[in-house]
C-alpha cells in the first residue's frame, strides 16, 4: 500500500515493479493484493497497462483497516476473535486487560493514515 501510495499518479503499478522496489516476492504480493482488492482498498486492471492503484486518496486509509484487510484480526489473544468466542470469557479474569489492549492498539492504528506514513 505504501508503494502504491508513493506512485499514486493515476497510473497502474505492476506487482513486478513493487516486488523490485520492496524486495518482496511477486507470489507473496499476489496473495496480499488479492485481499486488498477484495476489501475494496485497491483497484486492479488487466491488460498491457494493467496493474494496481489505490481506490482512495492516501489520507483516506487508516493503517488499521489496511492491516485488518491484509492480515485479519490482530487481537492480542484469540479469544477476542468474534468468530471464535471463548467459552471461558464470562469467568476470565484477564479478558478485560486483553480487550483494553486490543482497543488501544486499534485506536492507535486507526488514527494513523497511509498519508501519515509517507511523511
**Coarse structural class:** mainly alpha
Total strands: 2
Rg calculated over all Cα atoms: 17 Å
Report on the biggest sheet. 2 strands, antiparallel
Number of helices: 6
Question: What's the shape?
Answer: elongated
The helix content is: 40-55%
Oligomeric description of these chains: single chain
Q: How is the largest sheet built, in terms of strand order?
A: 1-2
- The overall pLDDT, averaged over residues, is 93
Termini separation: 14 Å
Low-confidence stretches: none
Question: How many structurally independent domains?
Answer: 2
Order of helices and strands: HHHEEHHH
Residues in β-strands, percent: 5-15%
Describe this entry's structure for a reader:
The structure is a single chain. The protein has 119 residues and is mainly alpha-helical. The chain has two domains: 1-55, Winged helix-like DNA-binding domain superfamily/Winged helix DNA-binding domain (Arc Repressor Mutant, subunit A), CATH 1.10.10.10; 62-119, no CATH class. Helices cover 47% and strands 7% of the residues. The chain has six helices and two strands. The protein has a two-stranded antiparallel ribbon with strand order 1-2. Helix 3 (26-38) crosses helix 4 (63-71). The protein is elongated, with a radius of gyration of 17 Å. The two termini are 14 Å apart. The model has no long low-confidence stretch (mean pLDDT 93).
Amino acid at each position: 500500500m505504501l508503494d502504491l501510495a508513493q506512485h499514486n499518479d493515476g497510473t497502474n503499478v505492476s506487482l513486478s515493479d513493487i516486488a523490485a522496489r520492496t524486495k518482496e516476492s511477486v507470489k507473496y504480493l499476489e496473495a496480499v493484493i488479492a485481499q486488498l482488492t477484495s476489501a475494496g482498498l485497491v483497484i486492479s486492471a488487466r491488460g498491457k497497462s494493467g496493474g494496481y492503484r489505490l481506490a482512495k486518496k492516501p489520507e483516506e486509509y487508516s493503517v488499521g483497516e489496511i492491516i485488518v484487510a491484509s492480515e485479519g484480526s490482530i487481537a492480542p489473544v484469540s479469544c477476542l476473535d468474534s468468530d471464535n468466542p471463548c467459552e471461558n470469557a464470562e469467568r476470565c479474569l484477564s479478558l478485560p486487560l486483553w480487550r483494553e489492549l486490543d482497543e488501544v492498539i486499534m485506536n492507535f492504528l486507526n488514527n494513523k493514515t497511509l498519508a501519515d506514513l509517507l511523511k
